[in-house]
Amino acid sequence: MPKTKKKFITNKEIVTEYFRLVQKKDTEGLKDLFWPDGIVFEPFSKLEEGLRGWSQIEPFMKVAIMANESLSYRIALEEFEDKDMKNNKKINELQESKRNDDDDDNNNNEIVESLVTFQKDGLVKAKFRFELSNGFNGTSNSDQKRIKSLQIKFV
Length: 155
Known about the structure:
Blueprint: H1 11-24, H2 27-33, E1 34-41, E2 51-52, H3 54-68, E3 72-80, H4 89-98, E4 110-119, E5 123-133, E6 146-154
């Protein structure tokens, strides 16, 4: 019997599922959370354009999963309106270059930030900024919200 994809309605469900799937080492499940042209900005590779698309994101996720194996962590979530995206020039500029002129999906973007405190021998904190939308690059599917971009920074 084919596996049915789970649909997430709220931003909190998507973000919570992201961290659950990392703990479960489920890269296929993580793939389903991202739009096909999703972007991850992570602090290790220093790529200004980020990792675009699952073929670039997947190797990073596999390393992140391995790194999380021996860590415990606590997550605090906070939601923002799309207005806050105007302050994030790097993501906006990269996505604008890929966006069609008539793409109105930008108005559907929602931001969830999570402060994650990792613990093993000491404490390390990282901010995960999820941009979520019902469509990306001209696609629209109002009943399926996914990750459009994820920005990870150590704080």
